[in-house]
Write a structure and sequence with these properties.
Blueprint lengths: L8 H19 L1 H6 L7 E3 L1 E8 L4 E8 L4 E3 L2 E10 L8 E9 L7 E9 L8 E2 L3 E9 L1 H8 L3
Antiparallel strand pairs: 1-5, 2-3, 2-9, 4-5, 5-6, 6-7, 8-9
Length: 151
Amino acid sequence: MSGLPRRIGLHGGICLFFVGLVGLSASGPLGAQSAAPAPTWQKQDTAILRAIDKVTARISTVTAPIDQPVRFGALEIVVRSCQDRPPTEPPENAAFVQIDDDRPDAPRKRIFSGWMFSSSPALNALEHPVYDIWVHACSSSDTAAESSSPS
């Protein structure tokens, strides 16, 4: 601590040291090597969701075309965007989903609006007293039709 002015103190000196390291690495060859390209996303026209009815303990697959409402029990689900990564990158699907609780005995209520990610289903899934919903995959309508057809 003898080399630092007294008013900076030990913690301030350590912070200045790390700020200097960050500045060197960002402007030097290390900074250029650490810059990774941003992941590319491919827009798809269909979201494949998984849904649980907790009363019956049934797991269902819900195929939701973009901007078209689909029903699951008392819920109305509208997927606004569904994107996935190409096969050359780590797998990930992201969907922007809006879910309304539309029961006949109560006024319609928006219970979820946000992004869901397939790699982290617990991060931002719908948690409802009766239903759980999360994104499973994104696909084109041709692929979704093939996967839902009986074999």
